Structure to design on (1035 residues):
């Protein structure tokens, strides 16, 4: 499939300059794009890269408007524009609807006629799969799970019983939705399991990365609101709530009953304590541990800067002695004040 | 299924007060429980919440004995009591025994007649599945694996060949037991794999969370003793031993040959170095790195407190210069002692 | 299968001393090896352990040459030698070639006659499986994936469409290759997905651990070069390149477009920022966050030393006040210089 530049600006807007009739069939990075591909430059400082590019067309920020004669689309947000063009040129494959003969669908499950159930998928009793949704090979949809329309479960996904997914949800391979939370009571040193009777409820347009795990609630539900994007290898514990349109990078862990606001951005390998609340529009840096509620937007960090190992060794010994160092400073202040007193006297 | 309060105290003990004949059919949080549900309050400080509750009955600590007229069970450990009541009211589903026609069981495997093998499960040659054990959809039990009685493998679990599980073991989706440890010899820069010929051996009443991985031993076995509870996304390397009734929160990593005591509690995203030993009853905080053996019970921590990012930037520069700061303090001490000496002279 | 010591030294070299005709059928640790097993001692300091060993033969470093009368092979790198002997004595099981009747192979896929496709495996349209490669139970090989020869995919592995694997690649259970990278453009607070149109390309002799995830590239490919060894639970983001023969321990995360050199060794739970470059032969310690490019070999660390919790509390308060502490030192230096000035005057 190829598109002319006027066809593209008709769909997505932007100012088209110096069109030469090229038809675009793909996207590529500026340095590798060929004459039938479109590339983008996100910021003015990278505009120098376009000189040597072979791209058939470019998506540029306003600063690139007057640079050169090449066919180009000028827009305030080139990266977003590029996302749209790329989605147009790389539509998700839509497999033929129907249930593969090697899938196992419980007779009491409801599968929309336009949905696709791949080989080896297992759909439990009472589950419901919406229009045009795809359940990938060897994925398992538990009893009484509800999937909305246009969902995409890649291969080897697991959804436990009674969980609820909205529409246009994407789950990547190895991810697990609705596993039991880590709920244990202690009886003289031994652990007694607390049945986890809540659900995991996932809103529209959520994407969940590979091997990310979302536990079901203990009594209430775990809730992932609409538009949330979760990267790979994230752990979401029971009763967590993640607000709409928050994005969380890989390897992050969120402990039980934490409430995270909307429009947050959480860096990789962050850890969020349980039972705390994080305001809307908070940013958390990579590797940061959040131990208390955050009531105001802003960026929060606790990462330790790295050093060459020998230098680190020299500094690390003091990390365990900061209280003594602080005490020595206090002592010095006392002594110097005494000296200054005598001096003045 | 519903139970009267006398039926509940007959099973689990506790002091029943002001019974009004209510029959309880479910558990719920205090603020959401209805007239046929039972709720609990774990600590005296939360007793104020019960005034407005609609719960049909309450499980309370001794301090709640004389609070109001509502039907209530008084017990020393309400959370534990609640765990038992919840298990009674929410029994794990017991699917019909038998091998689903879409499961693949090797003719030389032994499956108890009371066990359940779900659709898509694969049971290898020489494997043995005990009484009433359940192997979930698309789970794979390798050659010569032994599963005890009453085990529950959720969907998409993997157990490698020759591993041994006790009874009442629960494995959540995506977890992997018995994968090869990271054993490599180096030959002029290239890595040569060391065959991992030990097993992973898992005791009775162990629960393993979603996407947790437990490697098999290199020569000896990796051992998870009875009653251990592992949350999601934990990595247990080869030859690790985890003592009985230890609980480990999500995202923790334990390096090769570490020995962890019994009755330990290890916080989320902790990292334990290899070849060290941790005593019984140790507690390790979230995000803490343990680099040396711990010979005594206690709580150990190495988390870095977070700050607002600007403040963090101002402090972080000094983290790499602590040795110089300490040197400046030492120098000041010398100079002030000199001044003080002159003063006295 | 059993081998004489002369047979072993003929294959792998080394100096054989005091052979008594023993035939070796297995490997074991020094303290547990029996009369038909061979054990190894990697370093001179452990040579004292061999006195009480029941091992039928030993693999020793040069310092052990003259210790005792027991049959022994002396070699410069006993651990490497042991790796080779163990591989000889513990050959990987080679299942019968062929496609299990419960596997699902697309008619347009190409599977070598010597390859093995286990029960429940699903091979997509246009995929190609090389000679003697094994696809384990319930693993999924996506459309147009290419697998070289002698690959081993354990159970429940997932490879997304169009990815490319070299020969002798080992993928452990739960690992995911080729999932979408975390590519999102922001439109007034909402996230718009960027199609991930690159591939994951994995070289010869790579091993990938359980539940490790390797995202496909956004436009270009994610590349894992030959001989790389990845432990469990690692996250490799889109467009990362990992150089040949680098080994990475468990729970590490590598952000998008990071380039890691060859022959690096990266400790567990390290985090590597995106868009940085790490030179060849760099070592990174456990739990270390690398935020900038590393242009020279060396060891780099940012781990925070742990303490008993009370001590940690006393020190931690100063971590957030280092800038103030440093300011107080500066102030003291000023005041003492003033005093010293007056003293001299």
């Amino acid at each position: 499939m190829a598109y002319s530049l006027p066809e593209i600006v008709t769909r997505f807007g932007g100012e088209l300059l110096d069109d030469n009739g090229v038809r675009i069939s793909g996207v590529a990075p500026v340095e590798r794009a060929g004459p039938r591909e479109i590339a983008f430059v996100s910021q003015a400082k990278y505009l120098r890269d376009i000189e040597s590019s072979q791209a058939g067309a470019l998506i540029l920020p306003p600063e690139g408007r007057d640079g050169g004669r090449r066919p180009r689309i000028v827009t305030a947000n080139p990266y977003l524009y590029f996302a749209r063009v790329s989605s147009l040129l790389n539509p998700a494959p839509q497999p033929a609807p129907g249930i593969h003969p090697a899938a196992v669908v419980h007779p009491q499950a409801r599968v929309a006629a336009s949905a696709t159930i791949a080989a080896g998928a297992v759909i439990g009793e009472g589950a419901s799969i919406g229009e045009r949704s795809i359940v990938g090979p060897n994925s398992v949809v538990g009893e009484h799970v509800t999937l909305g329309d246009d969902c995409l479960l890649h291969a080897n996904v697991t959804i436990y019983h009674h969980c609820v997914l909205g529409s246009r949800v994407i789950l990547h391979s190895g991810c697990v939705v609705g596993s039991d939370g880590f709920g244990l009571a202690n009886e003289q040193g031994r652990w007694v399991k607390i049945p986890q009777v809540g659900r995991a409820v996932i809103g529209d347009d959520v994407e969940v990365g590979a091997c990310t795990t979302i536990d079901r609630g203990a009594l209430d539900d775990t809730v992932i609101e609409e538009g949330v994007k979760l990267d790979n290898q994230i752990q979401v514990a029971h009763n967590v709530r993640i607000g709409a349109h928050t994005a969380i990078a890989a390897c992050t862990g969120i402990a039980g009953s934490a409430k995270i606001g909307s429009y947050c951005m959480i860096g990789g390998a962050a850890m969020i304590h349980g039972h705390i609340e994080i305001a809307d529009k908070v940013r958390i840096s990579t590797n940061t541990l959040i131990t208390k509620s955050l009531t105001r937007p802003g960026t929060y960090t606790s990462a330790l800067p790295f050093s060459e190992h020998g230098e680190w060794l020299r500094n690390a010994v003091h990390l365990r002695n900061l209280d003594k160092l602080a005490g020595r400073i206090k002592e010095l202040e006392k002594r110097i004040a005494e000296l200054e007193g005598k001096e003045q006297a």
Observations:
- The mean pLDDT of chain A is 96.
